[in-house]
Amino acid sequence: MPEDSVARRMDELTRVKSNLILEARSLSGRGSGAAAQDLYQRAAELEGELADLYESLGRPKDAWISLLSAGSCLVKARQFRSARAVLERIVEHFPEAHDLLAQCGEKDDESSESEPPAVKALVDLLVQKHVITEEDWAEARKPS
């Protein structure tokens, strides 16, 4: 992938991921934890994709930061086994990862209680509030 395409993809991923995290925080603050879990999980996936792109550019420190963020999002999404796998890759670089790993313990991943219609309603709200566009959501959902 040409470097300018990588830069555009990274900007897009960063923008969508940041909006997902902001909305997840807002939902959590309003007591909608299940809906927030879905957004945190998707944000973690985007952080993982960002980490891969940073690695491809020879920027391992930036990749580790993205993986730390992905691990944090996975803990918030209650995806503990997945979070452990990510955090164990970077624990030697970030003392903060130890605290997140402790939160994971030996817990298994938990499924969110959000139903697909709830996710659709949430995406519709994000679009209505001009936080994301339909195109952003479609792009974010594409497999890597």
What does this structure look like?
It is a single chain. By secondary structure, the protein is mostly helical. The chain has a single domain, classed as Serine Threonine Protein Phosphatase 5, Tetratricopeptide repeat (Alpha Horseshoe), CATH 1.25.40. It is built from seven helices and no strands. The chain is flat and about 40 Å long. The protein starts with a helix and ends with a helix. 38% of the residues are buried. The model has no long low-confidence stretch (mean pLDDT 87).
Please specify the SSE layout and strand pairing.
Layout: H1 3-29, H2 33-56, H3 60-76, H4 80-90, H5 96-104, H6 116-128, H7 134-141
Q: For the residues shown, what is the average pLDDT?
A: 87
Overall CATH architecture: Alpha Horseshoe
**Would you list the SSEs in sequence order as H and E?**
HHHHHHH
Give the % helix.
over 70%
Number of domains: 1
CA-to-CA gap between the ends?
Answer: 13 Å
How much of the polypeptide forms β-strand, as a percent range? under 5%
Structural class: mainly alpha
Mind telling me the CATH class? Mainly Alpha
Low-confidence stretches: none
Query: CATH topology, what is it called?
Result: Serine Threonine Protein Phosphatase 5, Tetratricopeptide repeat
Largest sheet: none
Total number of strands: 0
Based on CA atoms alone, the radius of gyration comes out at: 15 Å
Number of helices: 7
Give a quick rundown of the structure.
The protein is an all-alpha fold and about 140 residues long.
